Each structure stands twice: as C-alpha cells, then as structure tokens.
Amino acid sequence: MDDFTPAQMARGRALRRAQLPWALGGRIAGLLCTLALGLTPAGAGLVTAVGGLFGGSRTAQVLAGTAVLLLIGQVLQLPFGARVRIVRRRYGLVTQGWRGWAVDVLRGLALGLLIALPVVYGLYALTGRSPHGWWLPAAGFAALLTVALSFLHPLLIEPVFNRFTPLPAGELRTALLDLAQRDGIRVRDVLVADASRRTTALNAYVSGFGATRRIVAYDTLLSTAEPREVELVVAHELGHVQHRDVLVGTVLGAVGAAVAVCLLGLLADWSVLLSAAGATDAADPRSLPLLAACAALIGAATGPLQCAVSRRIEVRADLHALELTEDPEQFIAMQRRLAVTNISDVDPPRLLELLFATHPSATRRIAAARAWRPARG
Questions:
Q1: Count of domains forming the chain
Q2: pTM to 2 decimal places
Q3: Are residues 60 and 179 in the same domain?
Q4: What is the CATH number of the domain that holds 236?
Q5: What are the pLDDT tens digits along the chain (377 aa)?
Q6: Looking at the structure, do residues 223 and 293 belong to the same domain, yes or no?
Q7: Which residues span the domain enclosing 223?
Q8: Local structure of 166: helix, strand or coil
C-alpha cells in the first residue's frame, strides 16, 4: 500500500461508500419495478391502457407498451443517477451542468427508443406467426443485432455523446502511431474526445474495426498525464485489439444474446408465469412486461460472470502493455495517476470486486506489474 498515501486511500473509500448505496439502489429499484410489472397483472393492464390511447390495436399495444416501459425505467433511475452525480461532483469528478446532463439523459432515451421499438415490433411479429416457436428465429436475429450494434457503435452512437477531433501533429501523436505500428496494428487516426465537459476522469480506448479503427484519448488524459503515461494507457488498449477482445466479445455477446432469447422462450411458455402476468401466450402484447422482467433477471444473474470475464481480459491487456513497452515503472506510475485522479478505491472489499468490478483493483494491477520483470527473467 506504499503506492498510495493514507489520504488518497481514504478518499477513494469515502467516494465508494458515498455513491455505492445510490448506484446499487438504482439497480435494485429498477429490477424490483420490472419484476412488479412483469410478474403481476399490473404490467398487462399498463400495456392495454397505453395501447388504448393509440387505437388499441396489437401494434399500438406493442409499440406504446415498449415506449412506456422504457420511460418508466428512465424516470425511476433519475433520482438515483442524480444523487450519484451530486456525490461525484462534490469530489470534483463532474464538470457538466444539470442542463447538459438532462440533454444526455434525453439523448440516451431517444437512442433507446430508436433501437428498442423496431426490435420489439419484430419480436412480436415473430410471436404472432409462431406463439411457441418464435424464440428460434428471434435468437438468430438477436445475435445478428448484437454484431451490428458492435460495428456501428463507434460510427453512430459514440458521436451522439462526444465530439472527436484529430490529435494535432506532434511527438505524442507520432509516438502513439509508432506504438500501434510496432504492435502490428493498423490505426486510421488518433482522436481526442471532449470528455472534460462532463468529467475530470482519465481514460482512453481503441474503437472500430479494420479501416475504422482509431485511438481515442480523453482530453483530460492528454492535459493531465505525462506523455509516457499516455503511451502506457494506449498500449493497454492496443492489447485488447491484439487479442481481438472486441471481436471475441462481440461473438460471445451474440451467443449470449441468442441463449438469453432461448431462455426467454422457455420462460414465456410457462403457464404459471403467463397467468401471473395476465397474458395468454407470448404473442399477447400483455406479455411484454413479463419478457422484460425475465430479461432483467437473466441480466442480473449473469452480471458477476461477465465481470469476471472482463477482469481476466483486462489482466491480459495489462500484460500486453508491459511486454510492448517493457516499462513497468511507468506502467505503475500510470496506474497511480489513474487511480488518484479518478478517485478509485484502490483496494475495495473482495465481494464488491467479484460482483461488480470490470477491472482489477489498482493494487492488484500494480502488484502484477512489479512481478512482471522477475517472472520474465
């Protein structure tokens, strides 16, 4: 623990303790609300009522029901998200005003509707054709949609929330491009994301596939970290590319989406659940809240497994950064800067790490970097 002062460690713990009840409370509240609507006739009544406002047809019930469920979820999360934001602002991590935050919330809601409405409409088109066998073609469509969104995310979704500008020519840009070239990775450009209008946190990532691949660095990182530390962050991100983590993650996500739809098919054919939800079968639009509840339960149950896989991937990317740069000292310096600037809890309770952490703790990453050179010999 000599890498961090007692004050730095205490500050990270204090932030975690201040925001965790609200962040976790938001998750629990959202899950309970979804279950309350999906496992009781309340959700069916809601779908019937809002569908009736638009003519009462099956299509109206499906589309209006989807929209109102998304809206309820968004409204429910607002107080929890706002409280987390207040806490993070108190610690200096938030720079965006409330108006900008509200605009981002509305953008997220609009994007969610843009994706969800045609997807759910297509789903119920399949259930209408085959109330008991719909899940088989739906699983295939879910896999294809996951792949499509993964490819389109850097091109269509990222620009909705951030502006990107090319990193000006200079030593750092040359160093980052040389780093990618030395790693055998083709990079189209080095971009700067205007993260400072929302946060003081530091980050960088590599996004896109093939000809669209680019290195993206937060402007906060470029203005705060030493150039060599920026290189180490990018080397870690190049590790994800080198090991095809995005591609493998996309394939696993597609398989997971297909399996989840198959599970939904089994659950939606269970008469006990249908009766509790007030629906006749999966083709009944009133089953929409039930499907949402089952999907939420599947997501909550698989969350810790996804986090465990993510941590293993991040450990491998750290190792790649060390092998590419052969600079464990600067890697450790970079981890210190990230942890201190982002006010991370550098040694969180193990249970919280297992359940929710997508990255190893800072102390674990630093310890691995110290062990790297002796292990390499």
A1: 2
A2: 0.88
A3: no
A4: 3.30.2010.10
A5: 588 999 999 999 999 999 999 999 999 999 999 999 999 999 999 999 999 999 999 999 999 999 999 999 999 999 999 999 999 999 999 999 999 999 999 999 999 999 999 999 999 999 999 988 899 999 999 999 999 988 888 778 888 888 999 999 999 999 999 999 998 888 888 999 999 999 999 888 888 777 778 889 999 999 998 999 999 999 999 999 899 888 888 899 999 999 999 999 999 889 999 999 999 999 999 999 999 999 999 999 999 999 999 999 999 999 999 999 999 999 999 999 999 999 999 999 999 999 999 999 999 999 999 999 776 65
A6: no
A7: 165-241
A8: strand
